């Protein structure tokens, strides 16, 4: 397979850290052309296994270096040179990607690393996991290039001129490109269950919603070493936890107080179609959905539909109450609203029980108390899907 130049600090995937107890040996032999930038004539290798940070170093001999070690499963690693303070400070201040560092997937076996220019030009060969990453990057790069061009051509002038119509057009096109990126990542993930970077991809894909019916069968196909790793076990626990609020599960009851101090339980709304709205006064995307909820509530509140807002605030209890009630009035929220309380030690908050990992999150519960749909985010697509589902479920009565 043809090698692709893929090393960059800006990985498309989050780092994979963790390992099983067993290990396999690796050797990493490399060459970097701009080795004279290294102020100590050394290249550094850094990664994690079993939650333990491992740092190693190798002397550069005319730009060549070699590492040997043991890993339990493929892991995201960093190669880096120690450069002059002025160079490091420049990259820190400008946030320009470090050209004296390279991220890649460290895998078992004999690996070759060649940087024909600066260290971030490194091409990795011999790592099965990194080959997967190269393939995915090759798929995604055209979309990212298109996104950058779109921003330069339409986004930048639209925002500079504060042209709301132009901004709306740019945003729509930008979202369409992001949808293509997400679809490409998903397709790659589910067609590569044995990839060494699968835990990273799973974590990214299920960052906001994890549906066990979709994920558990796939998770059972991944490399045994990945499943046995600390991160794999943690992910397995997350899958089990998600079953409590999975689609088709009975919604767990809770009791919280409304603005008048009156207890409100989810169970008291059984028999109605209920939308749980997890939000906060601090969350602009959450509050941007409230005008739509006002229209939806006005249309269906007399037809068996109820909204139960569950607010999470950040601050002292008395301040939280003021911020929360002020937002209720500002957003003209006439439906039932309660304030989530801080959990006692060892206990979960209501958002925690419902596996809320991002705001806004909305959970639709049918008249029998069964979870039928989850929505994360404030996009128009979610609003349209919610409208259709509410109409459909209420028309059955």
Keyword list:
single chain; 397 residues; alpha+beta; Immunoglobulin-like; Glutaredoxin; 3 domains; 5-stranded mixed β-sheet; 4-stranded mixed β-sheet; 15 strands
Strand and helix map with partners:
Blueprint: E1 24-32, E2 42-49, E3 52-59, E4 64-71, E5 75-81, H1 85-94, E6 101-106, E7 109-115, E8 123-125, H2 128-161, H3 164-190, H4 198-205, H5 212-219, H6 224-228, H7 230-242, E9 255-257, E10 263-265, E11 273-279, H8 284-288, H9 290-300, E12 305-311, H10 317-330, E13 336-339, H11 350-353, E14 361-365, E15 371-376, H12 380-395
Parallel strand pairs: 1-7, 11-12, 12-13
Antiparallel strand pairs: 1-4, 2-3, 2-5, 5-6, 7-8, 9-10, 11-14, 14-15
Helix pairs in contact: 2-3, 3-4, 5-7
Could you write a compact summary of the structure shown?
The protein is α+β, with helices and mostly antiparallel strands and 397 residues long. Helices cover 39% and strands 23% of the residues.
Describe the model.
This protein is an alpha+beta fold. It has three domains: 24-126, Immunoglobulin-like, CATH 2.60.40; 134-245, no CATH class; 255-395, Glutaredoxin (3-Layer(aba) Sandwich). The chain is 39% helix and 23% strand. The protein contains twelve helices and 15 strands. It is elongated and about 80 Å long. Mean pLDDT is 90; it is low at 1-21.
């Amino acid at each position: 397979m043809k090698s692709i130049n893929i090393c960059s600090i800006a990985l498309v995937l989050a780092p994979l850290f963790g390992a099983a107890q067993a290990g396999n040996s690796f050797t990493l032999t490399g060459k970097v052309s701009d080795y004279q930038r290294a102020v100590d004539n050394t290249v550094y290798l850094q990664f994690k296994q079993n939650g333990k940070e491992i740092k190693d170093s190798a002397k550069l001999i005319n730009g060549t270096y070699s590492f040997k070690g043991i890993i339990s499963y493929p892991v995201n690693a960093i190669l880096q040179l120690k450069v002059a303070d002025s160079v490091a400070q420049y990259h820190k201040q400008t946030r320009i990607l470090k050209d004296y560092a390279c991220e890649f997937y460290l895998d078992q076996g004999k690996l070759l690393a060649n940087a024909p220019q600066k260290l971030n030009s490194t091409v990795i060969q011999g790592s099965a996991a990194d080959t997967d990453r190269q393939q995915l990057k090759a798929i995604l790069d055209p979309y990212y290039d298109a996104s950058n061009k779109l921003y330069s051509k339409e986004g930048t002038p639209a925002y500079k001129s504060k042209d709301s119509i132009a901004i709306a057009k740019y945003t729509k096109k930008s979202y369409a490109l992001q949808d293509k990126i997400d679809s490409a990542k998903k397709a790659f993930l589910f067609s590569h269950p044995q990839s060494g970077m699968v835990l990273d991809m799973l974590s990214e894909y299920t960052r906001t919603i994890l549906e066990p019916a979709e994920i558990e069968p796939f998770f059972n196909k991944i490399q045994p070493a990945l499943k046995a790793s600390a991160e794999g076990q943690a992910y397995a626990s997350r899958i089990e936890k998600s079953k409590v609020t999975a689609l088709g599960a009975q919604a767990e009851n809770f009791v919280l107080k409304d603005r008048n101090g009156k207890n409100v339980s989810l169970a008291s709304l059984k028999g109605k179609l209920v939308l749980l709205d997890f939000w906060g006064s601090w969350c602009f995307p959450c509050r941007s959905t409230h005008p739509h909820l006002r229209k939806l509530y006005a249309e269906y509140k007399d037809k068996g539909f109820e909204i139960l807002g569950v607010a999470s605030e950040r601050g002292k209890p008395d301040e939280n109450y003021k911020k929360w009630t002020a937002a209720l009035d500002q957003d003209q929220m006439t439906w039932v609203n309660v304030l989530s309380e801080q959990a006692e030690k060892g206990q979960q908050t209501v958002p925690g029980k419902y596996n809320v990992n991002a705001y806004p999150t909305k959970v639709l519960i049918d008249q029998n108390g069964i979870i039928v749909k989850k929505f994360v985010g404030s996009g128009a697509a979610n609003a349209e899907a919610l409208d259709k589902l509410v109409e459909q479920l209420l028309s059955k009565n």
